[in-house]
Amino acid sequence: MLLWIALAVAVVALVVLAVLLHGVLGGLGRLRAELEAGARDLRPVLEQVQATTAAAERTRGHMNER
C-alpha cells in the first residue's frame, strides 16, 4: 500500500514539474517575441537619432571651423 502512495506522489510531482516547465518555457518564448517586436519598433527611432546626432556633429564641425 505504501508503495502505491509513493508512486502516486512521484507521478503527481512529475506532472506538477512538467506543468511548471511548460509555463516557464512558454513565458520565455513570449518574452523573446515581445523583445524582438520592441527592437523592430524602435529600429527606425534609433536610426533617426543616429542621423540627427551625425548631423549635429557635422554642424558643430562647421561652426568650429569659423
Structure characterization notes:
By secondary structure, the chain is mostly helical. The protein is 97% helix and 0% strand. The protein has 1 helix and no strands. The protein has one helix at residues 2-65. The longest helix has 64 residues, at 2-65. 0% of the residues are buried.
Distance between the termini: 95 Å
Q: Which class best fits the helix and strand makeup? A: mainly alpha
Multimeric status of the protein = single chain
Give the beta-strand count: 0
Report the sheet-strand fraction: under 5%
Order of helices and strands: H
Inertia-based shape? rod-shaped
Q: Rg, please?
A: 28 Å
Mean pLDDT: 94
Helical percentage: over 70%
Number of helices: 1
Main sheet characteristics? none
Question: Which stretches of 5+ consecutive residues score pLDDT under 50?
Answer: none
Describe the structure concisely:
The chain has one helix spanning 2-65. The protein has 66 residues and is an all-alpha fold. It is rod-shaped, with a radius of gyration of 28 Å.
